[in-house]
Amino acid sequence: MNIKKLITEYITVFALTLVTVASVTFLWNIIGHGESTIDWEISFRFAIAFGITLTWVKSREIKENRVF
């Protein structure tokens, strides 16, 4: 996997995770606490962790499936 594809994969996973976790924390706070706040700290933590982990797993999967 070249660097351009690796960065594109990371940014895609990061953005999707950030939006998903921000939405979940927003809805959780509205339903559970009656406040319309987003926990940005946890959203960015999850996005960074999932971005790195899932990109690494995908690159390992591509390397294993190569036929020489």
Structural features, described:
- With 68 residues, the chain is mostly helical.
- The chain has one domain.
- Helices cover 84% and strands 0% of the residues.
- Helix 1 packs antiparallel against helix 2.
- The two termini are 15 Å apart.
- 10% of the residues are buried.
- The model has no long low-confidence stretch (mean pLDDT 92).
Describe, in short, the structure shown.
The chain has 68 residues and is an all-alpha fold. The protein has helices at 3-33, 40-65.
Question: How large is the share of residues in beta strands?
Answer: under 5%
Oligomer: single chain
How helical, in percent, are the residues? over 70%
Number of contiguous helices: 2
User: Main beta sheet, described?
Assistant: none
**Residue runs with pLDDT of under 50 for 5 or more positions:** none
SSE topology sketch:
Elements: H1 3-33, H2 40-65
Helix pairs in contact: 1-2
List keywords for this structure.
68 residues; 2 helices; mainly alpha; 84% helix
